[in-house]
Amino acid sequence: MVDRAVAVDAWESLFRAQVAIMRSLAEDFPSRDISFNEYDVMLNLSRQPQRSIRLRELNKHVLLTQPSVSRLVDRLASRGYVHKHADPDDGRGAIVELTDAGFALFRRVAVDHMSTITARIGDSLSTDELVQLTALCDRLRLGSDQEPGRG
Question: At 74, which CATH number?
Fold first, then answer.
């Protein structure tokens, strides 16, 4: 059995590291065309088949609350970066799709953002440590009863 104090210390350290890194990345975000949160939505859309997903499912992937995501998607749609339409299989739901213009902007920003991430994270940890960190975070995210890739 794990010592509770050690577990709490580890959680606090992980949480504080995540907050510090997110603040740093948000401060150094390399775009005036989209915000850090808009980038997060576009990143998650870019990873979906046909760059399209139900709004309800998108909410599970992004770092924002559901009402914030809905408003953010509406703003992106008004600028032509995403297309939002009714789900043909469920009229109560909406499908969000990254447009070609949105994908092109996402890719331009992603190149610079990856450099910022690499500088912030890669300068602090070795490649082996980064691989280990990824594995540990995946285990925490998926739960102890699941293995990465089987979730």
Answer: 1.10.10.10
Domains contained in the chain, number: 1
Give alpha helix (H) positions in the chain: 4-27, 36-46, 55-61, 66-78, 100-117, 127-142
Digit-coded pLDDT (tens) for 89-121: 887 889 999 999 999 999 999 999 999 999 999
**What is the rounded distance in angstroms from the CA atom of residue 75 to the CA atom of residue 23?**
23
The two three-digit tokens of residue 100, written as one number: 């070609």
* Whole-prediction pTM: 0.81
Domain of residue 22 covers 4-142
Contact 77, 83 (CB under 8 A): yes
> Is 147 a member of any domain?
no
44 close to 58: Cβ distance less than 8 angstroms: yes
SS3 91: strand
Q: Which two tokens stand for residue 9?
A: 């210390």
